[in-house]
Amino acid sequence: xxxxxxxxxxxxxxxxxxxxxxxxxxxxxxxxxxxxxxxxxxxxxxxxxxxxxxxxxxxxxxxxxxxxxxxxxxxxxxxxxxxxxxxxxxxxxxxxxxxxxxxxxxxxxxxxxxxxxxxxxxxxxxx
Length: 127
Prior knowledge:
Oligomer: single chain
Mean pLDDT: 91
Shape: globular
Helix content: 55-70%
Strand content: 5-15%
């Protein structure tokens, strides 16, 4: 039996004891957001993800993929061929999370001129 399911703190992200905080941290990590964004377009291999996500190191991408797989957001499929072929795709849970994150990404991209303008204005005040 899952002890979190019976806990009064289950699903209370503002509580330091709630496991949802760890999942929130995993999902809102810059690299996780970008991986989920790419995988929302379909199945990708490691090298494809590395190429598409500018600035991510192999180590960081591998760590991110492991965390997302462990949390159940992505499925890793290894094909028994030489050389090894590994593909990554979203699970149903991953698709649901990706949909929300893609909405946020779209909002940021659409609002970017206003955000940049506000940032410049505030930066000028502090100089």
